[in-house]
Amino acid sequence: MSAELPATPRRAPGRARRRRHATPARPVAYRVGRVVAALVSALCLLITGVGWTLFNGLSSDLTSAGGLDVGDGGLDGAVDILLVGTDNRTDAQGNPLSQEELATIRTGEEEGENTDTILLIRIPEDGSSATAISIPRDVYVETSSVGGSKINGVYAANKEAHLERAVASDPDGELTEEDQRAAVKAGRNGLIGAVEDLTGVQADHYAEIGLLGFVLLTDAVGGVPVCLNEPVDEPLSGANFRAGVQTVSGSDALSFVRQRHDLPAGDLDRIVRQQVFMSQLVKKILSAGTLADPSKLGALVDAAKRSFVIDENWDFVDFAMKLQDISGGNVRFETIPVTSIDSFTEWGESIVTADPAEVSEFVAGFASTEDREADADATTDPEQTPTDAPGPDPAEVTVSVVNTTAIDGLAAQVSGALTELGYTAGDLLTDPAAAYTSHVAAASADDDAAFAVSEALGGLPVQVDPALPDGSVRVVLAEDYSGPTGDAAGTESYSPTTSSYAPLPPSIADRPTFDAGSDVPCVN
Q: What is the distance in angstroms between the CA of the first residue and the CA of the last residue of the chain?
């Protein structure tokens, strides 16, 4: 579905006018994947606090950025970190990478400007958990500084706008190093403001990382275990892996998290890979084998020194000490809710849309452990248990089942399990790869029958599809389905993907959630 856009969104200022020696850009997917990889490494260093065990001087050894519009955690008590990946060919101190290092990260010398991966990390005041919330790079935002833009272009647009103003103020002069530093600060502050407008959260700290840190980090811990459902050989990303469990590190790990071509769900399969990789990397860093190994800890801190830029007011060691007792199961990975993944601007640019009010409500739920526990308690009325209220009569509920997996007859088997419970069997359809996560759909969000079917199938999420008639529920089965099955209730028929049974296909808001305490899940 398409979301309504603001009237006449305008482009951010262009960069081309001052580029005297521009080089052809790499494919977008290639560049985005590398930035994502850098963010993975930064996230793991931030939320595992490896530096506290080594020396108290780490904060002074990290590159800092001044003049940023960050908060102090005073509004809700949570510590909020904006983590940004840049496609730089320099280290944190601005030194160009060597040819060997450029070859290691499998990139050329062309400079990237967009911040294609943006994470807001929320840590409650007690430091007991951390939630990394992804903001899709194509989310469209309205800003006071550069107008309408994909959020990944806000940093570059603000930086460029500052440089253009500097040139306009002195047309005959040369841009100075001070001009460049001020432009970078303007870019960072523009992005901080855009994230705040979208999420309702002012970042308390800012962290930025380049590509080299990813390779250094994965090498430092001796690689990260991953598992693939099928073997892959995809030359654009350099991904060449066998099926099953294996350990990847360095540039191979970078290829693992950046591949999106030749995957069943494209970019969404890539996102799942990233989150699985992050969860296992955090688990690896938190393991005794890493924390008790001085050489590994030293290598991790060296990676931070060469790759991190943090805001100047951040006492990184003090922050790390507060997180030293965090466990892997309390490090979660989420994505903001979106309203559409297939909208377009008036000039035809593909965008993702999101409702800031909905995003703010979602993000606010991770501000404290108490808030999440209260939300869970609120779902159960102490005066009335579920058995006190009569549920819907299963015989009056028609359930159609759509099989989007590679398992022949799965829809018929699940329908059979439901008919054994008294539900009326509806259409049995098959459409491979049409959905990314299993769910139950109903005409309204408070349809009791949908929640009853959901519970019967192991607690599937419930989505709203107004096209469904009253008394009808649709079950969509994807590769993640692990609920009950029964004797086949009929024969499936093929039905091509339509918006009637996939209102937001596939939904990046309903992807599987991973934490750093789980075993290695196999993914596409």
A: 26
